[in-house]
């Protein structure tokens, strides 16, 4: 387990900005150290433990980028506007060894991916030439070196191609495969325990009392954690009771890497998570300058980090993105991936408080001239699951903004980019 100190999440200010939260997490949370070796087919989404340098150049040999005719550019007459015919001698296809050098004054029939014959440095595309009695008629104006892929032009041998901490994507796995490697060393998956708190909650499938609702946050959070590559333990629903919460927290602390709860962290008298964590560990309430969202409880129980998210589903979702996600990445040894909003045009007006970051649920549509527009979901409640389900993503309104006017450029984050 990554053991964190009790004051790991200490914060002195009255309000915490999203950027402060992420930088505290990135600086103070230490990564799990265990390394596993996994095959390429199991590598997607894993966190690279050590950098990978290119053991060979890519492409490994100089080859043709097209189907056509390879020539020595020096053989071509330097006369402008005059076709030139060269006899065709030899044929080389992908996977075949090049047969000797191309004879001066000749062309070699060549196919995409085939090694360039020695001496040849330029390939004419077959679409651009004519054949005339065993000779190939070449048009004018092709630059020397055209249609050739040089050995190492993509990645030179020895180049540091993938950094430690990279969260492997399909294209990264492709690169590892192109290097001829069969396995990669990755950090072990982090283990996260998740539970919900609230007397009003029952699990789907259980019988629901008149004043109860089915627990939805737990399944949302577990799905988000799985997408981030975590191993998740589902610890169900805990009652609003300090003693049972404390004993549940204590029993899992030290056995995994992160404890995540939802609900019970407001400051109402039936919000017992705070007191429970304080009785078995340390806790700070991060009053985050974020809407929907605050507060988020951050704690350490027996060296294990604890995060208590708010119970309202939209607040839970948004704070997951800004607090849990960076924590999971830090624990997993991944490079922090900063969210980059895309500029879109606001098809809504909006007033907000200064010094607070707000997230507006929106749909995208193509407006005039094909410009993307963000259409605000008509209702704003933090409890509305439909507002997450029926939208494409979030418009991020920075701390400094107080008013959004129709047509103003705003930043959009698609849901897929958030996890
Ligand atoms: P709390 O943060 O415990 O005060 O809860 C705030 C609101 O979110 C209440 O209306 C709860 O019923 C609701 N809520 C809390 N936890 C969940 C959950 N796991 N799934 C769905 N709604 C929840
Ligand atoms: Mg509650």
Summarize the helices and strands and which ones pair or pack.
Elements: H1 18-28, E1 35-39, E2 52-53, E3 63-64, E4 68-71, E5 84-92, E6 107-110, E7 122-125, E8 130-132, E9 135-138, E10 148-149, E11 160-162, H2 170-178, E12 183-187, E13 191-197, E14 201-202, E15 213-214, H3 217-227, E16 231-238, H4 242-252, E17 258-262, H5 273-280, E18 282-286, E19 290-291, E20 296-301, E21 304-309, H6 313-332, E22 342-346, E23 350-351, E24 357-366, E25 372-376, H7 386-389, E26 393-397, E27 403-404, E28 409-414, H8 415-418
Parallel strand pairs: 5-6, 13-16, 13-17, 14-15, 17-21, 19-24, 22-25
Antiparallel strand pairs: 1-12, 2-11, 3-10, 4-6, 4-7, 5-9, 8-9, 18-20, 20-21, 22-28, 23-27, 24-25, 24-26, 26-28
The structure holds adenosine monophosphate and magnesium ion.
Adenosine monophosphate is lined by residues 196, 198, 200-201, 215-218, 262-264, 266, 271, 310-313, 383.
Helix content: 10-25%
Structural class: alpha/beta
Number of helices: 8
Strand order of the largest sheet: 7-4-6-5-9-8
Query: What oligomerization state is this entry in?
Result: single chain
What composes the largest sheet?
A: 6 strands, mixed
Q: What are the segments in which pLDDT stays under 50 over at least 5 consecutive residues?
A: none
Q: Report how far the terminal alpha carbons are from each other.
A: 23 Å
- Tell me which ligands are bound: adenosine monophosphate, magnesium ion
Q: In percent, how much strand structure appears in the residues? A: 25-35%
Radius of gyration: 30 Å
Silhouette: elongated
- Average pLDDT taken over every residue: 94
**What's the number of extended β-strand segments?**
28
């Amino acid at each position: 387990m990554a053991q964190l100190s009790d004051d790991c999440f200490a914060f002195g200010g009255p309000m915490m900005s999203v950027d402060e939260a992420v930088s505290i997490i990135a600086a103070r949370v230490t990564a799990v150290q265990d390394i596993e070796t996994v095959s390429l087919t199991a590598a997607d989404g894993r966190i690279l433990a050590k950098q990978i340098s290119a053991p060979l150049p890519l492409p490994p040999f100089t080859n043709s980028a097209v189907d056509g005719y390879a020539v020595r550019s020096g053989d071509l007459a330097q006369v402008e506007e005059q076709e030139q015919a060269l006899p065709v001698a030899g044929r080389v296809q992908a996977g075949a060894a090049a047969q000797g050098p191309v004879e001066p004054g000749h062309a070699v029939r060549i196919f995409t991916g085939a090694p360039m014959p020695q001496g040849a440095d330029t390939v004419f595309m077959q679409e651009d030439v004519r054949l005339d009695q065993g000779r190939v008629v070449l048009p004018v104006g092709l630059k020397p070196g055209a249609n050739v892929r040089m050995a190492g032009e993509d990645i030179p041998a020895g180049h540091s191609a993938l950094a430690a901490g990279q969260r492997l994507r399909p294209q990264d796995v492709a690169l590892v495969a192109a290097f001829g490697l069969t396995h990669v060393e990755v950090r072990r998956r982090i283990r996260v325990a998740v539970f919900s708190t609230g007397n009003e909650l029952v699990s789907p499938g259980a019988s629901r009392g008149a004043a109860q609702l089915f627990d939805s946050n737990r399944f949302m959070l577990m799905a988000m954690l799985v997408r981030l590559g975590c191993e998740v333990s589902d610890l169900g629903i805990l009652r609003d009771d300090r003693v049972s919460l404390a004993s549940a927290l204590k029993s899992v602390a030290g056995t995994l890497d992160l404890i995540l709860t939802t609900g019970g962290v407001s400051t109402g008298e039936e919000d017992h998570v705070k007191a429970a964590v304080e009785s078995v560990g340390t806790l700070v309430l991060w009053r985050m300058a974020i809407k929907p969202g605050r507060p988020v409880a951050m704690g350490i129980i027996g060296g294990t980090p604890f995060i208590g998210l708010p119970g309202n589903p939209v607040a839970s979702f948004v704070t997951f993105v800004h607090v849990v996600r960076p924590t999971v990445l830090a624990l997993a040894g991944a490079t922090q991936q900063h969210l980059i909003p895309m500029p879109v045009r606001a098809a809504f007006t909006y007033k907000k408080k200064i010094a607070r970051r707000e997230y507006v649920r929106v749909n995208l549509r193509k407006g005039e001239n094909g410009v993307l527009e963000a259409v605000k979901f008509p209702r704003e409640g933090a409890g509305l699951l439909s507002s997450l389900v029926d939208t494409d993503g979030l418009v991020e309104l920075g701390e400094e903004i107080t008013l959004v006017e129709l047509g103003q450029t705003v930043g959009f984050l698609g849901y897929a980019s958030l996890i």
